[in-house]
Write a structure and sequence with these properties.
305 residues; Alpha-Beta Plaits; four-stranded mixed β-sheet; disordered N terminus; Cation_efflux_TMD_sf; transport; Cation_efflux_CTD_sf
């Protein structure tokens, strides 16, 4: 006998849906400044400015993928063949952001190391003006994305990229001022290295979080043994097996389990108590629970995977 929730969450991420308009504003603003910074980097010869433009490119791409994931998920919700929708799209987008940003950071680090031996002169005035514009754009984008970053791994990826880019713009401004005052050309590659070193660890943490979801590992904030023990403590349950807990997408933890009931237990009462425990104590809103009334423990057979 089986039973479980027959409803799905209405959207891949409430945060992403609620902040969709802000995403579009941030996307347009950063896309414009990205082009300006890239052109200015070629004109001024500034590696720090090129690093900032590269990071801004991943900002734009990340936000674009977030918007694409929201749109695709809404359409998939109407497709009966996609029983879980396209919730994983935002996780894939976050992983792609992490890979792209890591690639940009590593490239800039390699280029910067080469420039320490042969520092290039840069056009300081243009470098400073564009860096200030980039800073203003990133401050606006940072404010737009901050609220949703706590609830969506995809928005968190875009938020981290904008945060790194904001600090990068500050670094470019500092390098431009230092060069203008002292003619110390090493400031440009030094700032480029600092930007890469700052953002890489955060990018890898984001990638690790996305991979954990994709391999269906249990959420880090949940102990599977605690879930097992709580279900086993439900009145009328004599044994719990085949328990699986995983994350479908940001803020959407799901579980499945087989519950062996005592012969005198009532199915509806056991199911209600088990679901309530999962929702209230572990925030698991979607659980598929198979009931085995009066069966011997493990009677349904062992699952090899």
């Amino acid at each position: 006998m089986g039973s479980g929730h027959d409803h799905h969450h209405a959207s891949v991420s409430n945060a992403a849906q609620q902040h969709r308009g802000r995403l579009w504003v941030a996307f347009g603003l950063l896309a414009t400044l990205m082009v300006v910074e890239a052109v200015a980097a070629l004109h001024t010869g500034s590696l720090a400015l090129l690093s900032d433009a590269g990071h801004m490119f991943t900002d734009v791409l990340g936000i674009g993928m977030a918007l694409a994931a929201i749109t695709a998920t809404q359409r998939a919700a109407r497709d009966p063949q996609r029983t879980f929708g396209l919730y994983r799209l935002e996780v894939l987008a976050a992983l792609a952001n992490a890979v792209l940003l890591s690639g940009v950071a590593i490239y800039v680090l390699i280029e910067a190391i080469g420039r320490f031996g042969d520092p290039h002169e840069v056009v300081v005035g243009a470098m400073l003006v564009v860096a200030v514009l980039g800073l203003l754009a990133n401050v606006v984008a940072f404010a737009l994305l901050r609220a949703g970053a706590r609830d969506s791994i995809n928005l968190q990826g875009a938020y981290l990229e904008v945060l790194g880019d904001l600090l990068g713009s500050l670094g470019v401004i500092g390098a431009a001022l230092l060069i203008a005052v002292t003619d110390w050309w090493w400031a440009d590659p030094l700032v480029a290295v600092a930007i890469g070193v700052f953002i890489l660890p955060r990018t890898w943490r984001l990638g690790r979080a996305a991979v954990r979801i994709l391999v269906q590992a249990a959420p880090e904030h949940l102990q599977v043994t605690a879930v097992h023990d709580r279900l086993a403590a439900v009145p009328g349950v004599v044994e719990v097996h085949d328990l699986h807990v995983w994350t479908l997408t940001s803020g959407m933890d799901v579980a499945s389990a087989h519950l062996t009931m005592a012969p005198d237990a009532e199915v509806g009462t056991v199911l209600t108590a088990a679901r309530t425990a999962l929702q209230e104590e572990f925030r698991i809103e979607h659980a598929t629970l198979q009931i085995e009334p009066g069966a011997a423990p493990g009677a349904c057979g062992a699952v090899t995977w």
